[in-house]
Amino acid sequence: MAKITWKTPIVEMQGDEMTRVLWDRIKETLLLPHLELNTDFYDLSLTERERTKDEVTVKAANAIKKYGVGVKCATITPNSRRMEEYKLSNMWRSPNGTIRSVLDGTVFRAPIAVGAIAPYVGGWKKPITVARHAYGDVYAASEIAVDAPAKAELKIMYKDGREVVKEIFGFSSSGIVQGMYNTDKSIESFARSCFSYALDVGQDVWFAAKDTISKTYDARFKSVFDEVFQGYKERFEKHGIKYEYSLIDDSVARVIRSEGGFIWALKNYDGDVMSDMVATAFGSLAMMTSVLVSPDGCYEYEAAHGTVTRHYYKYLKGESTSTNSVATIFAWSGALKKRAQTENNAALKNFAESLEKAVISTIESGFVTGDLIPLWRGASAPVKLDSFSFLSHISENLGKILNS
Ligand code: NAP
Ligand code: MG
């Protein structure tokens, strides 16, 4: 049978450690037997980032901007230990941070639902996608520790000479102050990414903040969302989906009582905290996908987890590992489905959906990696496989699905 291919390349970004090993094995066993891979390839391994002074990351990000679809393997974000381990000349930025700033995108994290792995929250039937506004707020705040009686003020100095000053607090003893900001432009991009993604996947958007308390800051988020939504309203109605704003505390309560199946749009800090809560409640980080969506419609898919360093060192010593490759496979299937959509390519769409079915059916039939054993709710006992036999089982199932 002729291999399936497509016209515009998908940007492929290879990464580090255990996920790098799995990446090659996924291509070899699941993709290359069926696809003529039309990819624009970038090696984002730390070694290659060091060799190119991190230019390779910027090139990859620009390629995603050009071609519109990318798929990325997990990569090491250097810290001081890695500086030593890899003899780095510089503590290079997180590749995800670089790509995000080039694309100005929003990250959507969604769990992969499998019947035999039940979420801790009994009512959740469908995945909950968390959209985190990864710009500004407390992550870019200025903080000062006050060590004696003092007056703290907030002061804005406009270019045109105007000044606005507001007292924050009169300290009678030591304390702390924080000043944070956001920009209308970034909030608008965030809102547009959320609404575009919602149309793409056909799900409601729930946005939550605390505008009753933060009557200027959070209220601005709410009004920007309302304004941007006006441009999407008709299309939302046509697709039968909704946009709703609620207070963050009310929203948390409603999420817990919900069935899932919506996009939960959150400010930076809320998104940081709630995405970990949702991931844990759904099971394993290895079953969580992540997609970066830019406001102009570029999509970059990846697994939400890291390079699984601990397993990699076992692998290097020749020991058996049981690393879950599901999120990485779903990063590929997500990118392939997106490309199938942009090119109206039915054969590619069918392949990507079959790949996902092959993964789900492998798990449903009880063949799993170690991380899923404690989460297992299936009828009979699961079989724990090593990293590579898990992929062979999926490959076998994929062959059956494609030939049926
Ligand atoms: P990690 O790679 O996500 O792994 C943390 C632990 O979670 C693992 O040791 C393992 O637990 C479990 N785990 C994660 N993914 C798994 C999988 N696919 N299958 C089975 N178990 C899995 O996080 P980390 O160890 O904190 O970070 C390692 C490196 O990844 C760091 O250099 C970091 O910079 C990088 N990182 C990259 C990205 C990215 O590229 N998007 C994201 C996060 C971190 P057990 O050891 O208990 O089995
Ligand atoms: Mg977090």
What do these coordinates show?
It is globular and about 70 Å long. A hairpin with a 5-residue loop joins β7 and β8. It is 43% helix and 20% strand. It is built from 14 helices and 16 strands. α1 packs parallel to α14 and α12 packs antiparallel against α13 (346-364). By secondary structure, it is an alpha/beta fold. The strands form four sheets. Strands 2-1-3-14-13-4-5-12-10-11 form a ten-stranded mixed β-sheet, sandwiched between helices. It has helices at residues 17-31, 46-51, 55-67, 80-85, 95-103, 184-201, 217-230, 233-239, 248-257, 268-282, 309-316, 326-342, 346-364, 387-403, and strands at residues 10-14, 39-43, 69-72, 106-111, 129-132, 142-146, 150-157, 163-171, 175-179, 205-209, 243-247, 263-266, 288-293, 299-303, 367-368, 383-384. Bound molecules: NADP nicotinamide-adenine-dinucleotide phosphate and magnesium ion.
Attribute tags:
20% strand; globular; 43% helix; two-stranded antiparallel sheet; binds NADP nicotinamide-adenine-dinucleotide phosphate; 404 residues; alpha/beta; 14 helices; 10-stranded mixed beta sheet; binds magnesium ion
Map the helices and strands.
Layout: E1 10-14, H1 17-31, E2 39-43, H2 46-51, H3 55-67, E3 69-72, H4 80-85, H5 95-103, E4 106-111, E5 129-132, E6 142-146, E7 150-157, E8 163-171, E9 175-179, H6 184-201, E10 205-209, H7 217-230, H8 233-239, E11 243-247, H9 248-257, E12 263-266, H10 268-282, E13 288-293, E14 299-303, H11 309-316, H12 326-342, H13 346-364, E15 367-368, E16 383-384, H14 387-403
Helix pairs in contact: 1-14, 3-5, 6-7, 12-13, 13-14
The structure holds NADP nicotinamide-adenine-dinucleotide phosphate and magnesium ion.
Residues 272, 275-276 line the site of magnesium ion.
